[in-house]
Specification:
single chain; alpha+beta; 13 strands; about 60% helix; about 10% strand; V-type proton ATPase subunit a; ion transport; V-type_ATPase_116kDa_su_euka; V-ATPase_116kDa_su
């Protein structure tokens, strides 16, 4: 480990996890809260739960956590009220101001009571206002009905009086008889007025008719605008109704039906003067209520703005306190109940900082006794801790999605930073598309400070988190696009004129036979003359397929070399001699040899068929190569490689289980216990050979595991090499799709010599390029590159069975949701 210079942290090293240690902290009760708070600010200790056998309610600080939970509920209530009122809490940019937790609790209680009272009063006033609005509508609509009925009755009476008695001999005596009836014996009709929801109005009328056996008369009037219902507070479409009935029994039935249908009833007078008086009173009360409600809402808004000024500060304080008490509950009380004992993992480099925080907490809390800090020895597997920055974090998360590295295991991220975007670019090679990706990514990178503080959508959040991955992918895409010489599928002689010229006018329709080399070879990438010829596809197919195999074999070799680095670091000679060596021999005697043949064929210009060479290397190894021979003594070399590949399989399979068994027996004879005195520095993780030192050794299980591992590697060497051909397939698909969009959309639209068709063609080309090539193809190539790293590369050396270092820290409290 490099010496710490200047700052609290040593230089970042991604290759292996930071050395970790199990520490014990003994803290006096009076300084425990402040100690945990300072350790949370430091963020370099992962506490272990020493009270895992206790339920949350049996722990020491259960009451304090309950208080924090209640305060968090009040803050959520405030946040909900501010959201409804359109008030945004002010950002808390300053440092944590030292505010008293008890004062915050009292203040929150007072504000909640005041806000609840204002809300309750406002609800009552709003309910009254809505009732009066309905009452006003009833007065208007029912008044219109009674007024029209009165006008109709008056007109009818005048008409009857103007008629002569002899004109209607049948009706006149009846009318005279009716007038002569004793008023005390007349049937008096009652009526009820109110509002009923419009969707229920027809059913309401039908039920009333059936319940009273038709002994009612009902009139309804539609209200054009929606009405706020006093009970629910929601807008609803309603009708005003007037029901005429006879008798108390009918009245009680009507009242029950109104209640069942949610119809609001309001009193109404037949007297026109009383109606006018009631309308005046209602209008006046509505104006008063509107003023009162407006004043109440203004007061509520002022109160919410006052809360919003301190909301983030209070929220952070409550979350901090809750986190502190949760952590304190993980510590155990000692026998005297005067101290708390905590255990946890921390990086070795953090020891001075932790001790400084403990001393500062003891001084600031006026504790007479200081805290005790000591390192414990353990054989427990420590957590894995890689210190990353904003550039490497996304790459580390790609690796962690497969599995977190075992403690001190080699980290694939070191090489993934380069290989992941490069393999993506091999499949996405087009420097025009790469520039489009680069422009989009630069927007995210240049505005990262502003965007990091905003809430983005799920997809945008994902893209923003991986902005540096996409940045690297776009840069490598530009590089491979220049090699393929493709700009939206169009070739450009950027670095020099083409090395070839056509022999005649029909050259573009011919094969390479029609081309004459007139200049030096094109200096960088594919010569632009290949594009558009009949031989373009066979040439690029051959080039990209062979290039995919070379890249695949190189990356698989890197994976096996990383397994050697792990074995050497953990001092496992067994893994070096009986895993690394035979794997290197097997892979390179077959597919390393194939890669060498590809390079030799490129260099010599030979016409040898490599498929024939590799197939007959297994089927007829003694047969003469003939025209497929690329170099002298090739047959002897092939026989040697084939023999070594066959030998490496039992070399991988047989010795390791027997050696592990012998090591296990040796440990049980007492040889392993002498080493405990030597391990006085950092933790040393046991290798695979010593992983079962205190467990029963199952030889059959180890042998079967090794057999599976051997078969998997042998078959995987073939399938993984073939899997890298996806680089060729996706690169070809991307190139052909780009070419189709250019030729069949853009050029075709250009050929019509019509401005409108050209505009439509350009729009279709842009949407097709963005939607298919820049979105779908990007995701496709991204997933394929991910698979190549997880399965073909990391599987060669990466166990990924560790667990992350998750320290107690306040850093992420502000971004968490309850």
């Amino acid at each position: 480990m490099a010496e710490i210079g200047g700052g609290c942290c040593p230089p970042m090293d991604l290759m292996r996890s930071e050395p970790m240690q199990l520490v014990q902290v003994i803290v006096p009760m009076e300084s425990a809260h402040l100690t945990v708070s300072y350790l949370g600010d430091l963020g370099l200790v992962q506490f272990k739960d020493l009270n895992s056998d206790k339920s949350p309610f049996q722990r020491t600080y259960a009451a304090q956590i309950k208080r924090c939970g209640e305060m968090a509920r009040k803050l959520r209530f405030f946040k909900d009220q501010m959201s409804k009122a359109g008030v945004s809490p002010k950002e808390f940019l300053g440092k944590d101001v030292d505010i008293d937790f008890d004062d915050v609790e009292v203040k929150l209680g007072e504000l909640e009571a005041e806000l609840s009272e204002i809300n309750a009063n406002n609800d009552k006033l709003q309910r009254s206002y809505n009732e009066l609005m309905e009452y006003k509508l009833v007065l208007e609509k029912a008044g219109e009905f009674f007024a029209s009925a009165h006008r109709s009755a008056t007109a009818q009476q005048s008409e009857i009086e103007s008629q002569q008695v002899g004109e209607d001999a049948l009706e006149a005596p009846l009318l005279q008889e009716e007038k002569s009836v004793d008023p005390t014996k007349q049937v008096k009709l009652g009526f009820l007025t109110g509002l009923v929801p419009r969707e229920k109005s027809m059913v309401f009328e039908r039920i009333l008719f059936r319940a009273t056996r038709g002994n009612i008369f009902i009139r309804q009037s539609v209200i054009e605008e929606s009405v706020v219902d006093p009970s629910s507070g929601e807008k609803a479409e309603k009708n005003v109704f007037v029901v005429f009935y006879s008798g108390e029994r009918a009245k009680s039935k009507i009242l029950k039906i109104c209640e069942a249908f949610g119809a609001n009833r309001y009193p109404f007078s037949e007297d026109l003067s009383k109606q006018a008086q009631m309308m005046t009173e209602v209008t006046g009360r509505l104006a008063e209520l509107k003023t009162t409600i407006s004043a109440g809402l203004d007061h509520r808004k002022i109160l919410l703005e006052t809360i919003g000024d301190k909301f983030e500060q209070w929220n952070l304080k409550v979350r901090k306190e809750k986190a502190i008490y949760h952590t304190l509950n993980m510590l155990s009380l000692d026998v005297t109940k005067k101290c708390l004992v905590g255990e946890g993992w921390s990086p070795v480099f953090a020891t001075p900082e932790i001790q400084k925080a403990l001393q500062r907490a003891a001084v600031d809390s006026n504790s007479q006794v200081g805290s005790i800090f000591q390192v414990l020895r353990t054989k427990e597997m420590p957590p894995t801790f890689f210190r990353t920055n904003k550039f490497t974090t996304a790459f580390q998360e790609i690796v962690d999605a497969y599995g977190v590295a075992k403690y001190q295991e080699a980290n694939p991220t070191v090489f993934t930073i380069v290989t992941f975007p490069f393999l993506f670019a091999v499949m996405f090679g087009d420097w025009g598309h790469g520039i489009c990706l680069l422009i989009a990514t630069m927007y995210l990178v240049l505005r990262e400070k502003k965007l990091s503080s905003q809430k983005l959508g799920d997809i945008m959040e994902m893209a923003f988190g991986g902005r540096y991955v996409i940045l690297m992918m776009s840069l490598f895409s530009i590089y491979t696009g220049l090699i393929y010489n493709e700009f939206f599928s169009i070739p450009f002689p950027l670095f020099a004129p083409s090395a070839y010229e056509c022999r005649d006018a029909s050259c573009s329709e011919a094969t390479t036979i029609g081309l004459i080399k007139t200049r030096d070879t094109y200096p960088f990438g594919v010569d632009p003359v290949w594009h558009g010829t009949r031989s373009e596809l066979p040439f690029l197919n051959s080039l990209k397929m062979k290039m995919s195999i070379l890249l695949g074999v190189a990356q698989m070799n890197l994976g096996i070399i990383m397994s050697f680095c792990n074995a050497k670091f953990f001092k496992s000679a067994v893994n070096i001699w009986f895993q690394f060596v035979p794997q290197m021999i097997f892979l390179n005697c077959l597919f390393g040899y194939l890669s060498a043949l590809i390079v030799i064929k490129w260099c010599t210009g030979s016409q040898a068929d490599l498929y024939h060479v590799m197939i007959y290397m297994f089927l007829s190894p003694m047969e003469d190569l003939g025209e497929n021979q690329l170099f002298p003594h090739q047959k002897t070399v092939q026989l040697t490689f084939l023999f070594l590949a066959l030998i490496s399989v039992p070399w991988m399979l047989l010795p390791k289980p027997f050696i592990l068994k012998k090591q296990h027996e040796a440990r049980h004879q007492g040889q392993s216990y002498a080493q405990l005195e030597e391990t006085d520095e950092s933790l040393q993780v046991e290798t695979n050979g010593g992983a079962h030192g205190h467990e029963e050794f199952e030889f059959s299980e180890i042998f079967v595991h090794q057999l599976i591992h051997t078969i998997e590697f042998v078959l995987g060497a073939v399938s993984n090499t073939a899997s890298y051909l996806r680089l060729w397939a996706l690169s070809l698909a991307h190139s052909e799709l780009s070419s189709v969009f250019y030729e069949k959309v853009l050029l075709m639209a250009w050929g019509f010599n019509n401005f409108l068709i050209l505009i439509v063609g350009i729009l279709v080309f842009i949407f097709a390029t963005v939607g298919v090539l820049l979105v779908m193809e990007t995701l496709s190539a991204l997933l394929q590159a991910l698979r190549l790293h997880w399965v073909e590369y990391q599987h060669k050396f990466y166990e990924g069975d560790g667990y992350k270092f998750a320290p107690f820290t306040f850093t992420l409290l502000g971004n968490e949701d309850e």
